[in-house]
């Protein structure tokens, strides 16, 4: 076999890797919200975590992508190192399914439906269906499914091209001679490690091995050490992805490597003993694509059966080898979004959603602190206040950092294609982070107003203080409703925000009229009047931003983003809206 004869194999490998990449990327996109929901089901149960790892790997057909995702999720603080361990075992088993699909190529039967099970026969059908879906359908989800089919067909085409290229090797007297020289378990182990590390995909390296098995010149004794090596070689992707991450994230890649090295360390010596002293006939039998798929799965299942029950011991070992040390990602007290998740939009949006929820809590907390600071002005001057203006300003700076980092991260994600659910989530996040940031701004302005009142020795009359206390009680309630609605994605709670916002607007308007009356009667100083006007303006804007956030939650669920039309229809036609307005009016109208 000369260089020219080898070129089709190189082309086949290229098509194979390209098809796998296309299929994996679009399966990941197709999983979309399901992937996010699965990640939210992370549990301390080893068995559930294992099953979740298998499901996610089946969903996106790439253990490398899943392990890189785990590194990114742990690095972003969404998942703990301990939670990721069971998923690692699941990815090792889930990735073996690809080999089973290739293993169907060995079916020999005259029965038509059995022949159709061969990838070479059903992949052209999938390619044709995929093209039709891409051309005819207008739905993005259906087009993505079509791309998955096309990617799979390209993958199988590459597999067949590699197989056709290596088949003539079976007739070459040199090929068995070369294999005999390489027929060393240790060399096979190293070969599996190196080739998989280069391809950065155990599925790809197993597929290449299955293609060579069609020559009929490889024995099971030859391929088993290679399969063991392939399990170690696939760890290179997670190791590379963990460079520059937090200690917790590095532990994920080390655990991935440890599990696969321990698996090989357990079974490789046993294989050598069995081969040397027993020499069973099965090790001398020809290896087929089906046999390789079975061996790959059994090897990973055996590793899981032994190592998963002692996962806590493995966790302690890794934690001892990699003790917690200060790093940028570990000590980041505000927000950290891992760029490794860019290639997994659903996981990246999960990270953004978690960060946005923290931002929501921070923003509402800053407003609550500002309201408490204003309330403290009625207390005895010597009494120590619970919150300070400086603390509120520091919190506002944190919300600014949230908006900046989340905004830049979301813009990068927005440049990619998404599932319908992910696109809606992205739109909601881009809409609400500005409102959360503005809540922090208004909290800071309220803190400035409180400081000015104290520094100038101004005194608000009891009537003014009562009015402000009443509005602040309503603001506290609308903030609680908004935070609950957003963090829990609760549309029913969100629907209660807009009626209360209208009542707060009415309370603010009435307070302004009362203030004008007091000015005319000389019951209020001009300085106090200016500050009061500013405070009322901040109150009104805070309730407006709460309304914007609640509407974004509702519209995301309704898959419609027309806020003005929604509010107009709500106010005109919803009897529950009017009922809530009347109830809040009765509750807070104390004039």
Look at the helices and sheets and give the structural class.
Answer: mainly alpha
Largest sheet: none
How many E strands? 0
Q: How many separate helices?
A: 27
Keywords, separated by commas or semicolons:
0% strand, Methane Monooxygenase Hydroxylase, Chain G, domain 1, 591 residues, single chain, elongated, 2 domains, mainly alpha, 79% helix
Brief characterization of the structure:
The protein is mainly α and 591 residues long. The protein has helices spanning 3-40, 46-60, 63-75, 81-94, 97-103, 112-115, 119-136, 140-166, 174-182, 185-199, 202-213, 220-233, 236-241, 247-278, 281-284, 289-307, 311-321, 328-331, 345-375, 389-414, 420-455, 462-487, 491-494, 497-520, 526-558, 563-573, 575-588.
Describe the protein in words.
It is a single chain. The chain is mainly alpha-helical and 591 residues long. It folds into two domains: 3-318, no CATH class; 344-588, Phosphate transport system protein phou homolog 2, domain 2 (Methane Monooxygenase Hydroxylase, Chain G, domain 1). The protein has 27 helices and no strands. The longest helix has 38 residues, at 3-40. 46% of the residues are buried. Residues 326-334 have low confidence and may be disordered.
């Amino acid at each position: 076999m000369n260089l020219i004869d080898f070129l089709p194999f190189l082309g086949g490998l290229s098509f194979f890797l390209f098809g796998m990449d296309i299929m994996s990327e679009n399966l990941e996109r197709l999983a979309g919200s399901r992937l996010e929901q699965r990640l939210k089901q992370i549990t301390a149960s080893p068995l559930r975590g294992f099953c979740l790892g298998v499901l996610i790997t089946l969903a996106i057909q790439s253990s490398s992508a899943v392990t890189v995702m785990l590194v990114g999720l742990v690095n972003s603080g969404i998942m703990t190192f301990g939670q990721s361990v069971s998923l690692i075992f699941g990815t090792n088993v889930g990735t073996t399914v690809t080999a089973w699909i290739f293993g169907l190529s060995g079916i020999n039967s005259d029965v038509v439906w059995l022949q159709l099970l061969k990838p070479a026969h059903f992949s052209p059908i999938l390619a044709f269906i995929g093209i039709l879906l891409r051309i005819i359908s207008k739905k993005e989800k259906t087009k993505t499914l079509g791309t998955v089919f096309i990617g799979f067909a390209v993958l199988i085409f590459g597999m067949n091209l590699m197989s056709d290229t290596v088949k003539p090797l079976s007739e070459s007297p040199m090929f068995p001679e070369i294999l005999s020289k390489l027929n060393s378990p240790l060399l096979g182990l190293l070969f599996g490690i190196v080739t998989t590390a280069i391809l950065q995909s155990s599925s790809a390296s197993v597929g290449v091995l299955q293609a060579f098995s069609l020559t009929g010149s490889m024995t099971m004794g030859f391929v088993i050490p290679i399969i063991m090596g392939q399990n170690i070689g696939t760890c290179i992707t997670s190791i590379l992805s963990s460079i520059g991450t937090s200690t917790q994230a590095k532990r994920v890649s080390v655990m991935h490597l440890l599990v696969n090295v321990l698996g090989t360390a357990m079974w490789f010596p046993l294989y050598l003993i069995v081969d040397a002293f027993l020499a069973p006939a099965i090790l001398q039998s020809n290896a087929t694509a089906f046999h390789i798929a079975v061996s790959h799965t059994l090897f990973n299942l055996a590793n899981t059966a032994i190592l998963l029950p002692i996962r806590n011991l493995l966790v302690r070992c890794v934690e001892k080898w990699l003790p917690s040390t200060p790093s940028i990602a570990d000590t980041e007290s505000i927000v950290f979004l891992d760029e490794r998740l860019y290639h997994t939009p659903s996981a990246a949006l999960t990270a953004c959603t978690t960060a946005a929820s923290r931002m929501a809590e921070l923003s509402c907390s800053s407003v609550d602190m500002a309201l408490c600071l204003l309330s403290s002005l009625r207390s005895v001057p010597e009494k120590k206040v619970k919150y300070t203006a400086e603390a509120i300003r520091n919190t506002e700076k944190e919300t600014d950092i949230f908006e900046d980092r989340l905004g830049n991260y979301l813009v990068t994600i927005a440049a990619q294609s998404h599932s319908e659910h992910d696109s809606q989530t992205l739109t909601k996040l881009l809409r609400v982070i500005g409102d959360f940031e503005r809540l922090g701004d208004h909290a800071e302005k309220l803190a400035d107003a409180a400081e000015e009142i104290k520094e100038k020795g101004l005194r608000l009359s009891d009537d003014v203080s009562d009015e402000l206390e009443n509005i602040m009680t309503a603001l506290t309630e609308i903030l609680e409703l908004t935070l609950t609605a957003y963090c829990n994605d609760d549309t029913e709670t969100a629907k209660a925000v807009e009626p209360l916002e209208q009542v707060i607007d009415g309370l603010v308007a009435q307070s302004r009229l009362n203030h004008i009356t007091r000015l005319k009667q000389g019951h209020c100083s001009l300085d106090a009047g200016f500050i009061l006007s500013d405070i009322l303006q901040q109150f009104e804007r805070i309730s407006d931003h709460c309304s914007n956030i609640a509407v974004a939650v509702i519209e995301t669920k309704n898959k419609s983003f027309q806020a003005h039309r929604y509010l107009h229809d709500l106010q005109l036609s919803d009897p529950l809206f009017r009922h809530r307005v009347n109830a809040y009016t009765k509750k807070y109208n104390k004039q």
